[in-house]
Amino acid sequence: MRTQWRRAFRSRHSRWSSRPTSIRRLFGGAGNLNPATIGFESIRVSVRLEADAPRESLEALVRHATLWSPVANTLHNPVHLDVTLEPAMVRAA
């Protein structure tokens, strides 16, 4: 994602773009800079395990993996997101 942002914000003299990128085009188009609800509404995961174990053991394994999954925990529990704009780098002449 970091590369995409860099590419989107490079000047028109950049090797990535032949024309300047409009901030409006990047965030919603048509001049709409108001936040919109974006993202996932639901996520479904289907687990297929082939193991010589009773179904109850496999279900317990899936519950345990979900409980300790960083991704599942991030989705279940609110996470503070801190986004900062880094200072511009000084370019050598």
What's the N-to-C terminus distance?
29 Å
Derived from helix and strand composition plus strand pairing, the structural class reads mainly alpha
Average pLDDT level: 76
Low confidence ranges: 1-5, 7-16
For the biggest sheet, the summary is:
none
Helix content class: 25-40%
Whole-number tally of structural domains: 2
Radius of gyration, CA atoms, in whole angstroms: 22 Å
What's the count of strands? 0
Count the DSSP helices: 4
Q: Give the SSE string.
A: HHHH
Beta content comes to under 5%
Instruction: Specify the overall morphology.
Output: elongated
Would you give an account of this structure?
The chain has 93 residues and is an all-alpha fold. Helix content is 35%, strand content 0%. It has two domains: 1-32, no CATH class; 39-80, no CATH class. The protein starts with a helix and ends in a 17-residue tail after the last helix. The model is unreliable at 1-5 and 7-16 (pLDDT under 50).
In short:
35% of the residues lie in helices and 0% in strands. The chain has 93 residues and is mainly α. It folds into two domains: 1-32, no CATH class; 39-80, no CATH class.
Sum up the structure in keywords.
93 residues, mainly alpha, 2 domains, 4 helices
